[in-house]
Amino acid sequence: MIAVGEKAPDFSLPNHKGEQVSLSDFRGRRVMLAFYPSDFSPVCSDQLSIYQEVKPSLDEAGLEVVGISIDHSWAHRAFRKELNLDFTLLADFHPKGEIAERYGAYLPDYGTTNRSLVLIDPEGVVSWVYESPTPLEIPGANLLFDALEDTDTA
Amino acid sequence: MRSRARTSSSTRSKTLTPPELTSASVPPVGPEDHIRGEGREAILYLDLACPHCAATWAQLSGLPLRLVFRHFPVASKHPRAPALHAAAEAAALQGSEEAFWALVDSIYRDQGRVDDPHLWERASGLGFDVERFDRDRRSTALAERVRRDFEGGIRAGVVATPAAFLDGAAVAGDLASELAL
Question: What is the predicted ipTM?
Answer without folding.
Answer: 0.93
